[in-house]
Amino acid sequence: MRYLQHSREHWDRCVSLASLTHALAYQDSSLLGNNMRVFSHYPTKSAAEVNANSYHHIVVGGGTAGCVLASRLSEDPKQMVLLIERGPVVDSWISQVPLISSNFQDQRAPVYKWQSAPMRGIGGKSLSLAAGKALGGTTKVNGLIYSRSAPGEYNAWKDAGRKKWSWQDVEPFFKKSEHSLSHSQAIGRGTQGSWVNQNVQTEQFDIVQKNIDMTTRFNIPRVSMANDSSSPNVACTPQDATIDSNGHRCSTEVAFLPKTLVSNRKNLSICTGAIVTALDIRQGEDGHLRAVGVCFSPDSGHLDHKYSAFAIREVILCAGAIVSPQLLLLSGIGPREHLEQVQIPVLKNLPGVAGSYFCTSAVQGTAERRCRRCVAGQPITGSDRIP
After folding, report:
1. Of 90, 118, 121, 313, which has the most beta carbons under 10 Å away?
2. What is the rounded distance in angstroms from the CA atom of residue 354 to the CA atom of residue 213?
3. Domain Glucose-methanol-choline oxidoreductase N-terminal: where (predicted)?
């Protein structure tokens, strides 16, 4: 009996320790209590504090692109910049540990989770989709792989008419932002930037070595450096990972919006815990439509408190491949048929906006639910399916 009681007490302590570990990782106040939360006083502002203010640039979404843009634009002290992110600041010590912080399946992980619609190519199965919900976006929870993609992808954009998007145009910016710990002498790699990465050798794992052996059998070439623009598109190479010299995850808010930088830039405001519900689009004197601001609310589950901020120069959408088109739809920009279906006034009929993400599906009965979320300004939940 004493043994059973001792085992039960030991089990309870293990469960409590595990819960505390998760709470520390994701700053869960329900477990830690308000007095035990481990904040580092990262300088953010609430939705109410930025309400009715004007900024030269408003950046929607604090993921990779949003963090970089907010950092670069605010380098000019004359430019007032507002970055709005729905998620919180997650900067606990566990969130810096590469392996633990990569567990985006955890219930408390700072992520959005969706299920795709059944896909023909994989026998009608659905895939799980995840995206980061925190300042730093998916770089808070991803597999840390630093990849620039193939030069041909950028050249194809240029050939399609997108000026200044060739590999020759974009490579200097990759180099400017990068701090490579492993390839300091390599042409095209950066050492003066703030986004730290290093080469990761994983051959000691049996499964990795087996995969390497398979590439040899199929005559896939081996290259010594990832992100070498002269390498073939298909190759076997050690990966570059966004891990700093201390072995910590180097997410984009750490790299481009560190606490000291944000504290020193009085022209930069970072608003977390706020959900943008629509763009404020008006017709100018020249007859053209222009985004003059954004409408947003606190991310408290209710949209009763409605706030707005005004843009002197521009509004930049950096909310990702799912939420950016959703915001355009909520603002009246998208396929006319879809907007009329959900009773959103059409400001611009633009079929290129992916209305199918929200209101068409091979799964009967999901379209109506998704339309209601569009009208309410709510991101799609895990119970909705995205084709």
Report:
1. 90
2. 41
3. 320-334
Cα–Cα dist 229/188, whole Å: 8
CA distances from 351 to 11, 50, 325 (A): 57, 33, 11
Q: Alpha carbon of 167 to those of 23, 66, 117, 157, 188: distances in Å?
A: 43, 21, 34, 9, 11
Which of 246, 252, 228, 243 has the alpha carbon at shortest distance from 145? 243
pTM of the model: 0.82
Same-domain status, 45 and 129: yes
* Whole-number Å distance between alpha carbons of 128 and 109: 15
Q: Is 51 exposed, middle or buried (0-12, 13-18, 19+ CB in 10 A)?
A: middle
Give me 59's structure tokens. 């950046």
Alpha helices by DSSP H, the chain: 2-26, 29-32, 47-50, 64-73, 98-101, 151-159, 167-177, 206-217, 252-256, 259-264, 320-330, 336-341, 356-359, 366-376
Per residue in 121-177, pLDDT tens? 999 999 988 899 999 999 999 999 999 999 999 999 999 999 999 999 999 999 999
> Residue 56 pLDDT > 80, yes or no?
yes
Domain containing residue 270: 40-142+255-320
What residue has token string 């701090």?
179
Work out how many domains the chain is built from and give that number.
2
Q: What is the pLDDT of residue 117?
A: 83
Per-residue H/E/C for 244-291: CCCCCECCHHHHHCCHHHHHHCCCEEEEECEEEEEEEEEECCCCCEEE
The C-alpha atoms of residue 360 and residue 368 are separated, in whole angstroms, by: 9
One domain, residues 120 and 155:
no
How does DSSP classify residue 366? H
pLDDT at 383: 35
